[in-house]
Task: inverse folding
């Protein structure tokens, strides 16, 4: 089994009244969910999303279908909670992350995304965004956009899934959009390259996002596949 180290940090920022983000640092699954701004109970929706994803830690050698099934279940859990408590009607959340699994005997990362939270890979000094933001086409050139896929919708959204061979020495970053809203890729890469401990790296990225403006909640999970 791969040797994994991970850490997380979050902050409400300077503008929002409450933190609607949730983070998951499990044994084999790592994720961020960003409750939809302006929607009722976005914090509840994000917590339900990570609670569903956390169940992947109970699955032996999870594969892409297992990840997809938990995302589908998360959507159902959010809809059911809204029916049970009408004050939570309309709540929604993004979800992005990665899960370590086994496919045909090889350890792989299953990267997943619904919405505009992101997963990046950092290796050999280069930062690459692995996920694609689900935002309206007219908003692609903007720093914020209208989200086109989210959990808490009927019919449920189709998650994006990618499979990557797990390679020792890789570092991954999972974050809500509050990080790239304030901190550019070059600065993110600088921190990931300079701060070895994953939790301290997550804390430093969050600190910089808040210092730069903190216009949204910001949540960061850093995952290291230790060589």
Result:
């Amino acid at each position: 089994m791969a040797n994994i180290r991970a850490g997380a940090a979050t902050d409400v920022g300077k503008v929002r009244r409450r933190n609607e983000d949730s983070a998951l640092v499990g044994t084999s699954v790592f994720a961020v969910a960003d409750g939809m701004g302006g929607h009722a109970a976005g914090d509840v929706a994000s917590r339900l999303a990570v609670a569903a994803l956390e169940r992947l830690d109970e699955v032996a050698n999870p594969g892409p279908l297992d990840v997809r099934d938990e995302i589908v279940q998360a959507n159902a859990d959010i809809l059911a909670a809204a029916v049970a408590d009408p004050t939570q009607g309309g709540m929604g959340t993004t979800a992005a992350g990665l899960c370590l699994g086994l496919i045909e005997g090889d350890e792989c990362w299953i990267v997943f995304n619904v919405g505009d939270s992101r997963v990046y890979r950092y290796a050999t000094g280069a930062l690459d965004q692995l996920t694609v933001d689900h935002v309206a086409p007219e908003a692609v050139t903007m720093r914020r956009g209208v989200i086109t896929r989210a959990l808490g919708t009927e019919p449920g959204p189709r998650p994006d899934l990618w499979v990557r061979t797990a390679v020792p020495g890789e570092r991954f970053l999972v974050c809500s959009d509050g990080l790239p809203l304030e901190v550019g890729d070059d600065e993110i890469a600088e921190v990931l390259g300079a701060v070895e401990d994953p939790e301290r790296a997550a804390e430093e990225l969050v600190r910089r996002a808040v210092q730069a403006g903190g216009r949204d909640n910001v949540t960061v999970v850093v995952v290291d596949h230790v060589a």
